[in-house]
Amino acid sequence: TVLRWIGFSGHKIDRDYLDSAIDFTRRQWLGQQYQYHTKNAIAMRILSKRLAKISEVMFWTTMVVVAAKIAMSVAAINQYWLSKGLGLFATWLPVIGTTSFAIRNHAEFEISAQRSLSAREVLLGYNRRLQELQKTNAPLSAIDSLLTELTAEAISETADWLEIYEVKDTEAG
Description:
This protein is an all-alpha fold and 173 residues long. Helices cover 87% and strands 0% of the residues. Helix 4 packs antiparallel against helix 5.
């Protein structure tokens, strides 16, 4: 399928054609996947940091609210709406903080970011190898072998990602 996609079927294969097929593979397949994994790693890291920050802010805000509520009680300040408002905040801030903490840990954004960075490096390695084959005017069999290896790697990587998200989908809680 990959060989047909890049045009290895039904054409006379000369050096120019091989070079254009390699360029196409590097640009359309490897280049786009590289860009995807770069963006995914950045997005996952940013999301993880934001959720961690929300958890931390909610924790410290809860501490301030509880301290204010205690101070009002000790000072015998009887402001009904302020007291009730602080009580409501003291109840909901930890819920929000715990929820963002749980989402961050359950989704494992850092692990997804690292997997994308690793996949990106593998793609970069294949890109370099294809470039070397192109520079050295390698025979069709070497290019075919590398594309077959790349295809197997892509299938394996996709299956690994799918398995991770299927496990996440079936985990209890």
